[in-house]
Write a structure and sequence with these properties.
By secondary structure, this protein is of the alpha+beta class. The protein is built from 2 helices and 4 strands; from the N terminus they run αββαββ. A 4-stranded mixed β-sheet has the order 1-2-4-3. The longest helix is centred in the N-terminal third of the chain and has 12 residues, at 22-33.
């Protein structure tokens, strides 16, 4: 089978969060933030400009005000999810 594509597939491309220490910052965010009331969970993403950020899923906007602006140099972004309940 031949591939006719602009870019070849490289399996290492799948792990987009290895660069720049985001994993270490994420681990620190977990230990600092998951125990705070109103924090439902955390995630990682990239901005449209390619910057790694830590996303904190929170119950309401009041919790966002208590989040640090960054952890180990990575921006922290709050996203209101409301209550999360297992089905």
């Amino acid at each position: 089978m031949s591939e006719n594509a602009e870019m070849s597939y490289e399996p290492s491309d799948d792990n987009q969060f290895v660069f720049g220490g985001i994993k270490g910052a994420f681990a620190k965010a977990q230990s600092q933030l998951l125990s705070q009331p109103g924090v439902n969970g955390l995630g990682m993403t990239k901005t449209p400009t390619g910057q790694d950020v830590i996303v904190v899923y929170v119950k309401n906007a009041l919790v966002i005000e208590k989040l640090p602006p960054n952890i180990e140099g990575f921006s922290v972004v709050g996203e209101v999810t409301g209550d999360i309940r297992a089905l």
